[in-house]
Amino acid sequence: MNWLIVDWYWPLDGWIVVAGILCAVSAALLGNFLVLRKMSLLGDAISHAVLPGLAVAFLVTGSRNSLPMFVGAVVVGILTALFTQWIRSAGNVDEGASMGVVFTTLFALGLILIVQTADRVDLDPGCVLYGAIEFTPLDVIDLWGLAVPRVIITLSIVLLINLLFVVGLFKELRIASFDPELATALGFRASIIHYLLMTLVAVTAVAAFESVGNILVVAMFVVPPAAALMITDRLGRMVVYSAIIAAVGAASGHVMAISVPAWFGFRSTSTAGMMSVSVGLLFLMAALVGPKHGVVVTWARRWLTSWRILSEDIVAFLFRQEERSTNVAADLKSICSSLMVPAWKARVALWREARRGTIIKSAEGTFRLTPAGTRKAQELVRSHRLWESYLVQELALTSDRIHDKAERLEHFTNKDLRTRLSDAVTASEDPHGSPIPPEAQ
Amino acid sequence: MINRSAFTRKIWGIAAVVLVFVATFLATIPALAEETGEATVDSDMWFRVLTLADYNTRVVVAGTGLLGLAAGLVGSFALLRRRALMGDALSHATLPGIGLAFMFATVMGWDGKSLVVLLTGAALSGVLGTLAIVGINALPRIKEDTSLGIVLSVFFGAGIAIMVVAQQMSTGHAAGLESFIYGKTASMLSRDSWLIGATGLFVSLVGLSVFKELKLLCFDEAFTQSLGYSRHLLDLVLMAMIVLVTIIGLQAVGLILMIALLVIPPAAARFWTENMERMSLVAALIGSAAAICGSAASAIFPQLPSGATIVLVCSSFFLISMFFGSRRGTVFRFFRRLALQRRVGRQHLLRALYEQQELQEERGSKLAEQAIPFNNLLKMRSWSPAQLRREIRRAVNDQEVLEFPDQTLRLTAAGMVNAKQLARDHRLWELYLITHADIAASKVDQDADMIEHVLEPATIAKLEQLLAQEELMALPPSPHPLGEAKK
After folding, report:
1. Mutate to test the interface with A, among B150, B169, B180 (most CBs of A within 10 A)
2. Of B17, B178, B312, which has the smallest distance from its Cβ to A109's Cβ?
3. Cβ contact (<8 Å) for B150 and A96?
4. Is the pLDDT of residue A330 over 80?
5. CB–CB of A293 and B312 under 8 A?
6. Would you state the pLDDT for residue A243?
7. What's the mean pLDDT in A252-266?
8. d(CA A284, CA A295)
9. What are phi and psi of B483, to 5 degrees?
10. Which of A16, B174, B186, B210 is 20 to 30 Å from B297 at the Cα level?
11. In this structure, are residues B268 and B322 in contact, taking their beta carbons and an 8 Å threshold?
12. pLDDT of residue A5
């Protein structure tokens, strides 16, 4: 690590990274189901809403002991989920709005409670908002002769519970997330799974917020599952990927927190903040280059297809020209005007086809198909005319509406489909009167 | 018919909501009393604030009032567009802009904490957040709430990281930047108030001028596009208004609580009306009233943070609306439901009695004169003995049913007329289902059960026309065997 960052000190930074990873993975595991249920912002809502729980726990017990605080916060967290549900059904507003009503109200109450007791309590609202993952290694417990930070133990327990919940009830969670009615029909109450999930979300949020700050857990509830959703279509893989993304994001976030400000001459910055930034960058990466739905990949796929279609159109155009009168050859100008493409695109496509040996350019600047090109064109034109005949024959479309459809379908028709089409089609000519060419040998 | 248990559960749920609110309010009172005792708030102070005697109070109240107005109006659109938490995401997204603007201004040697600098930074970063939300929404399979969550957490995380760095700068104190998070209306300068008020007014005017288009967008996206409006452009206008309201609201009510002004007044207005114009009007009124009350209270009790106070006033309005709203308020709906339940119960009883009597007539003329035993009635439907007794008591009071000491019942003359009418409606609908909807005779009873209570005279007339057969104009016989309820 020292080659990258000067200030890396394993006994401190190692524990910080471990705490970050534990928190991130616990949140991401549950987050998958929140994202699928369109409740992504619940983590955010609970993190704000627990404030009065902390304040009331303090007012009741009069101590800053962490157990009453924890219980108070978890209770309010669960109440947030319940109130959201009730207000949604009573007011007939969507999830987001009822969530907004509940958590802002609770947060305001909490803020007033804390301000009112500020003289006697040392409950810092700043701490509530930002947490302090950097202080993780300072509070240690002796565990079998090894000094382990208390936070690590708490978060490990939370992670274990979440892992057991997600793995043990995976089937139920899957059904309840995608089809609550089916769940009820299968004999288990989807609402029980729902409230169990809400409870664990509250527990995770509170445990994480007490130890590493709530912005981290809010980010980890949403961003890694969203990134995993860009990569895969399967729920099982999504859960695994989201955990991996969360862990990588947490680890790289701490490295960034130490190293990035150093480039500008500052000391290290908030680790929790940088962890959410780094997982955000991972999401960006997944959104751009994800193998299935990534923006770049989709774009490249479309780009390649559009070039393929253009060259196929050119080949088919030359075939039709030759079919009409053998001695008139097409030049660049006539190709561009009849296919409605700019000259540079047509040139690139022609060059590509020439290299493949389907087109020959003559000295006068006209283009002709080679025997290989003729075979390729014949397949396309055959597909086109088969489709036209099929559409008229089977779907009873009028002959002026079939050309556009056939024009699109011809590029995605292989030999098998052509055979089946020709079995179905009885005519030997297309509806416009042109002969359907035989299958190329 | 009516799911009693779900309904009772909901009532309990709402009661729990109230209880927690009350409990927390009570918890604040001792603390409040203590504070007010120390701060020596006398009646003079109250008088000065309530009559807007001080110039500063006047300006602050006017500014936050206009802010509440604008937020209520814009929030109505956001709510109906199912983007209520947009303000949440965007208010978090302004943080990196605030931090960077402060750092930039400090490096350039300007005043890092001037409102203009910070608001410019906030606006730029808010616009960036808006674009990010639109961009992420365009990705396949990512839902709106997820894109809001991503922008919220990543931008806020970046903001925190930047703030920590900003505090390390040797020149310029970043300490005061926190007021952006909690809000300090009382200490707001009058110049800031003017800016907030003017922007609030501007946003309200923009909102009113594109009201029709935004209303269209909220209710029928496809129709909006087919009329030639750009959906993306209208969405951007809406989001731009949210960004504007949010960044000017930061100073008055704080980063996290700004969302409350955008969400709670429109959600409360939903309980009062189903009409978009009225809803946004009510939301704007609630928003400005809450903002004015909240900032006045904050001026009287210096220990109350203005943002939180404004939000709590908003929430009180919401609670009141939730219970007493004239359109969807819980109390209103409870009574409406109770009335419906009673009507349905009475109709069930009368028809059951009539059908029992009919059954006895079929069996023999001697039996026809006899009263109907309670136990026979009990078997007609899936009602509990207690439920049935309650219905009978009501019917006896209405003089539609006579109850005899030996647990038998009989319809009075008036009851007979009504019961006959009800049985006729029921059977007309059954026959309609059989002849026109091809539903088996054994299934129609339940279907007719659902609809008979809400059949209007016009519908009955239409049914009669449809089933125009001479013998049906009297009471048609039941198309299925009468008797015990299918359980």
Report:
1. B150
2. B312
3. no
4. no
5. no
6. 96
7. 83
8. 10
9. 140, -140
10. B174
11. yes
12. 55
Cβ–Cβ contact A79 with B under 8 A? yes
Question: Residue B30 — pLDDT band, cuts 50, 70, 90?
Answer: very low
Computed over its alpha carbons, how large is the radius of gyration of chain B? 32
Which of A93, A269, A287 is facing B267, going by the closest CB pair?
A93
The whole-angstrom separation of Cα B446 and Cα B438 is 15
pLDDT for B47 equals: 62
3-state secondary structure of B403: strand
ipTM above 0.85, yes or no: no
Q: Which pTM was predicted?
A: 0.76
Contact B24 A86 (CB under 8 A): no
- Judged by a CB distance cut-off of 8 A, whether residue A319 touches chain B is no
B13 and A86 within 8 Å at the Cβ level: the answer is yes
Cα three-residue angle B161-B165-B169, rounded to 5 degrees = 165
Count other C-beta atoms under 10 Å from residue A289's C-beta. 14
CB contact under 8 A, B178 and A126: yes
CA distance A64 to A143: 24
Residue B371 has pLDDT above 90, yes or no: no
The CA distance from A245 to A243, in Å, is 6
Of A39, A100, A221, the CB nearest to B263: A100
- Is the separation of the CB atoms in A436 and A385 below 8 Å? yes
* Nearest Cα residue to A280 out of A232, A222, A323, A205: A222
What is the spatial distance between Cα A247 and Cα A243, in angstroms, rounded to a whole number? 6
Of B198, B457, B485, B253, nearest to B356 by C-alpha is B485
Residue of B347 and B183 predicted with greater confidence? B347
Question: Does A295 lie at the interface with B, CB-CB under 8 angstroms?
Answer: yes
Quote the tokens at residue A315.
């080949």
| Lookup: tokens for A93 | 């507003």
Long-range contacts from A232-238, C-beta under 8 angstroms, 24+ separation: A232/A292, A233/A292, A235/A32, A235/A36, A235/A174, A235/A177, A236/A170, A238/A32
Selected residue with higher pLDDT from B482 and A407: A407
**In chain A, which residues have their Cβ closer than 8 Å to the Cβ of B329?**
none
Q: Which long-range contacts (CB under 8 A, 24 or more apart) does B133-142 make?
A: B133/B86, B133/B89, B133/B239, B134/B232, B134/B235, B134/B236, B134/B239, B136/A287, B139/A230, B139/A287, B139/A293, B139/A295, B140/A293, B141/A229, B141/A230, B141/A293, B142/A226, B142/A229, B142/A230
Closest approach of B100 to chain A, Cα-based (Å): 13
Could B139 and A295 be called an inter-chain contact, meaning their C-beta atoms sit closer than 8 Å? yes
Q: Amino acid identity, residue B399?
A: Q
Tell whether the torsion through CA atoms of A110, A115, A119 and A123 is positive or negative.
positive
Q: State the CB neighbour count (10 A cutoff) for residue B397.
A: 9
**What pLDDT was estimated at residue A122?**
53
Mutation target vs A (from B139, B282, B336; most A CBs, 10 A cutoff): B139
Asked if residues A277 and A260 have their Cβ atoms less than 8 Å apart, the reply is no
CA distance A429 to A385: 8
Whole-angstrom distance, CA of residue B41 vs CA of residue B51: 16
CA A368 to chain centre: 47
Phi/psi class of residue A242: alpha, beta or left (left: φ > 0; alpha: ψ in -120 to 50)? alpha
Determine how β-strand A359-361 pairs with β-strand A146-149: unpaired
Can you tell me the distance from the alpha carbon of A5 to that of A149, in angstroms, rounded to the nearest whole number? 24
In the predicted model, what is the mean pLDDT of residues B281-290?
91
The answer to whether residues A33 and A147 touch, using CB atoms and an 8 Å cutoff, is: no
Cα–Cα–Cα angle for B255, B257, B260, rounded to 5 degrees: 135
Tell me what pLDDT residue B470 has: 47
Contact A269/B140, CB-based, under 8 Å? no
